[in-house]
User: Which sequence fits this backbone?
């Protein structure tokens, strides 16, 4: 079991770091550029760019939109790998050997996905760093103003809230794709179909859960 | 020995098995034959416990399967080896890891003992040179041999094979058939093989159960299948020109 969990951490968590870091850096940059370009008024302080970038990245982009992106990457991988095992009778083979196939296949993935907040830490850091880089090199604001903005009225609960959300999304990302893979019927074409359906359901559930957690923690 | 009594199974009110009664003997290769859709695979899956019958009883060495607790069934499954039609090898594991897998999951043997046992079986199926290869790096016949090695590595009491030589050339198919028969004798296993391959029937059909439309149509052995007057059996057996010619010569 220990080995399988490590293998899943490698596939699901470490394997996602590259794309998460890449996307976070550039989206952070775009968020800061868009914010800077859309504030013309001299009454609005320059540090708003850093402030808005930090809030967008920590509260929504890193936890929620990264989870949706990972629904495409990790979710599809889980559904297709379990679905292929179903199609090629590997799950039946496990059952015949007297091995609890759900426990064997899904539980290590669930455990591995609970490390998703670590990925989100990287996403938050690189998103804000990307925002800083784009702001400075684009000449939209000074480094001091941006850094002042990201420190402005910092509420550590926002990070805790982001981690709570991420943890919930991690459970969604492990279970919904596993369900669609495990209970799929048919052949190779249906594996692709199941991956698509699982992505759609993951996205819908993540967005709905995001709405309710936001209501719960901020209303 | 496995005894089945009056097994019925239906899906969506469509009867698939209509009261099958037979017994599969220990130390023999028991073949279940019939056309596609005759209910062979469903019968095998019922024997494996993957489906529950709507009616009927299954006895594994005199013990009624339906009376077993979940734990007893789990223990029984550890005494069952299965060779799937598509081999069902774990893609991410090498040949030796596939064979080691049931031992790693279900026994408390030391790693050295497990490797020793696995290598003995891999050698028995003549795959020792390919033991570090992945399933997609070996041929279909070799994959079948790995599946057989994995199925027998735990010294099962019962071995089930679902069309073990489908998709194989006739020569490799005979190698697989003979290997299954030899292992059945060596380990004194109750072996049940689903097949619609007449070569298998001729080679290893010590007892044969012929299913048609979910009914037991005929029962016998490869010694008397050519002599039967049962129309459904003769239709099936002599469906190819080759066997029609053999029949002419035989008669």
Assistant:
């Amino acid at each position: 079991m220990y080995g399988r969990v490590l293998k899943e951490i490698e596939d699901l968590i470490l394997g996602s770091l590259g794309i998460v870091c890449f996307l976070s850096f550039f989206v952070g940059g775009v968020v800061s550029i868009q914010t800077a370009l859309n504030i013309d008024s001299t009454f609005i302080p320059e540090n708003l760019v850093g402030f808005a970038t930090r809030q967008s990245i920590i509260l929504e982009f890193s936890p929620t939109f990264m989870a949706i992106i990972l629904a495409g990457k990790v979710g599809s991988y889980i559904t297709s790998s379990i679905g292929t095992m179903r199609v090629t009778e590997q799950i039946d083979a496990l059952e015949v050997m007297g091995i609890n196939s759900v426990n064997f296949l899904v539980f290590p993935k669930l455990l591995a996905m609970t490390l998703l907040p670590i990925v989100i830490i990287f996403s938050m850091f690189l998103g804000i760093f990307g925002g800083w880089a784009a702001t400075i090199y684009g000449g939209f604001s000074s480094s001091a103003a941006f850094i002042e903005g990201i420190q402005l009225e910092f509420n550590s609960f926002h990070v805790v809230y982001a981690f709570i959300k991420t943890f919930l999304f991690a459970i969604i990302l492990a279970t919904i794709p596993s369900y669609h893979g495990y209970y799929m019927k048919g052949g190779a074409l249906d594996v692709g179909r199941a991956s698509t359906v699982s992505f759609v359901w993951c996205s819908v559930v993540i967005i709905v859960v995001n709405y309710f957690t936001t209501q719960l923690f901020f209303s | 020995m496995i005894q089945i009594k009056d097994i019925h199974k239906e899906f969506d009110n469509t009867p698939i098995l209509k009261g099958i009664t037979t017994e599969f003997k220990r130390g023999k290769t028991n073949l279940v034959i019939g056309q596609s859709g005759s209910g062979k695979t469903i019968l095998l899956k019922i024997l494996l416990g993957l489906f529950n019958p709507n009616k009927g009883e299954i006895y594994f060495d005199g013990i009624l399967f339906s009376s077993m607790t979940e734990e007893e069934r789990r223990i029984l499954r550890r005494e069952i080896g299965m060779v799937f039609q598509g081999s069902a090898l774990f893609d991410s594991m090498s040949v030796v890891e596939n064979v080691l897998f049931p031992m790693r999951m279900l026994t408390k043997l030391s790693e050295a003992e497990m490797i020793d046992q696995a290598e003995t079986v891999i050698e028995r199926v003549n795959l020792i040179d390919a033991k570090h290869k992945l399933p997609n790096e070996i041929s279909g016949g070799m994959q079948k041999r790995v599946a057989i090695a994995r199925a027998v590595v735990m010294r099962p009491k019962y071995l089930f094979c679902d069309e073990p030589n489908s998709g194989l050339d006739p020569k490799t198919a005979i190698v697989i058939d003979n290997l299954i028969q030899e292992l059945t004798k060596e380990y004194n296993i109750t072996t049940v093989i689903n097949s619609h391959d007449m070569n298998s029937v001729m080679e290893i059909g010590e007892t044969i159960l012929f299913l048609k439309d979910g009914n037991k149509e005929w029962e016998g052995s490869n010694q008397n299948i050519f002599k039967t007057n049962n129309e459904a059996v003769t239709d099936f057996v002599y469906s190819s020109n080759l066997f029609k010619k053999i029949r002419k010569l035989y008669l």
In short: Residues 48-87 of chain A form the longest helix (40 residues). Chain A is about 85% helix and 0% strand. Residues 2-218 of chain A form one domain.
